[in-house]
Design goal:
This protein is an alpha+beta fold. It has a single domain (about 5-195, about 245-250), classed as Aminopeptidase (3-Layer(aba) Sandwich). The protein is about 20% helix and about 30% strand. The protein has 6 helices and 9 strands; from the N terminus they run E-H-E-E-H-E-H-E-H-H-E-H-E-E-E. It has helices at about 20-25, 90-100, 125-140, 160-165, 175-185, 205-210, and strands at about 5-10, 55-60, 65-75, 105-115, 145-150, 190-200, 220, 230, 235-250. Strands 1, 2, 3, 4, 5, 6, 7, 8 and 9 form a 9-stranded mixed β-sheet that branches. The structure holds coenzyme A. Coenzyme A binds near residues 120 and 177.
């Protein structure tokens, strides 16, 4: 199959493509994950489209349609595991604080990479990651940090992420396809981020977001969730923490 040549643009260069981020996000995340994050990333998200427009990328093919989009922000990171942000909200709050106090960023920190559903399974996801690496390099940053959301973890919701992240195929590469994409590009695993997002809602809201019923209190396996959703009927609350795996791309 011959592939169309594709081009990468920043949102600053192509503000007309802003709606594409939302379109791809809609088709990328389970519904419950698109609800309000109790850790508060939502208050910063709009700034991706203004303050951080130089760091949001769209990949379009020669004919025009959007193939993929990535979100990232630059920030100061000391290089230690202890200094990794604990959540998506903290990535954004730290980038904002660094920016406002004029501190020069040291790394580019990814927030999301999304391939349009029509283009998945064609080997394009490394191209999206490569685009972020190239963006970091252009800005003189030596590292791309990525809180990787393992694409196949939802099939193993009971496995601890610490173990799952190390599961390998016979060839020694990571079993998870998305961890594998990063690893094959040379990234190493730094740590598990146990709670990058926190989604809470009433039992009724959770039933609506998941099309499931939760008649008892307890832990439930939910499609698209990387670990169980915990339902407390007495408190009328469902709670889900989205775990990620921190990976580091070192840029020559
Ligand atoms: C995760 C995602 C970025 C992968 O993109 P993609 O274009 O479908 O993946 P690629 O075609 O580049 O393939 C990457 C790897 O996954 C494998 N893969 C692709 N589709 C697969 C499938 N349906 N089942 C199992 N493995 C699959 C590929 O074989 C490849 O591995 P290999 O190089 O070892 O052969 C994409 O599915 C997506 O946007 N998902 C929604 C958003 C998301 O989860 N983003 C990542 C977290 S931020």
């Amino acid at each position: 199959m011959t592939r169309m040549p594709f081009k990468t643009f920043t949102l600053r260069e192509r503000p007309d493509l802003e709606d594409e981020f939302e379109r791809l996000a809609e088709a990328s995340w389970p519904r419950f994950l698109r609800q309000k994050d109790a850790l508060g990333y939502g208050q910063y998200w709009p700034s991706l489209y203004t303050t951080w427009a130089d760091w949001q990328l769209v990949l379009v093919d020669g004919m025009g349609p959007t193939i993929a989009a990535t979100h990232a922000v630059p920030l100061v990171w000391s290089g230690t595991v202890e200094d990794l942000p604990s959540s998506i909200a903290e990535i954004l709050s730290r980038a904002t604080a660094d920016h406002e106090s004029g501190r020069a960023p040291t790394v580019l920190c990814a927030l999301a990479a999304m391939v349009d559903a029509r283009y998945r399974g064609q080997g394009l996801s490394p191209v999206a990651v490569r685009a972020m690496v190239d963006l970091a390099r252009v800005h003189g940053l030596g590292t791309l940090l990525a809180p990787v959301r393992p694409a196949d973890k939802s099939a193993y919701p009971l496995a601890p992420m610490e173990r799952y992240a190390r599961w390998q195929n016979d060839d020694g590469l990571p079993m998870d396809r998305w961890i594998r994409v990063h690893a094959r590009m040379g990234a190493d695993i730094l740590a598990v981020a146990p709670r990058t997002l926190l989604i809470t809602g009433s039992v009724e809201e959770w039933e609506r977001w998941t099309d499931l019923r939760f008649p008892d209190s307890g832990s439930y396996v939910v499609p698209g969730a990387l670990q169980p959703v915990v339902i407390d009927r007495n408190a009328d609350e469902g709670r889900y923490e989205d775990p990620n795996v921190w990976m580091r791309h070192t840029i020559e």
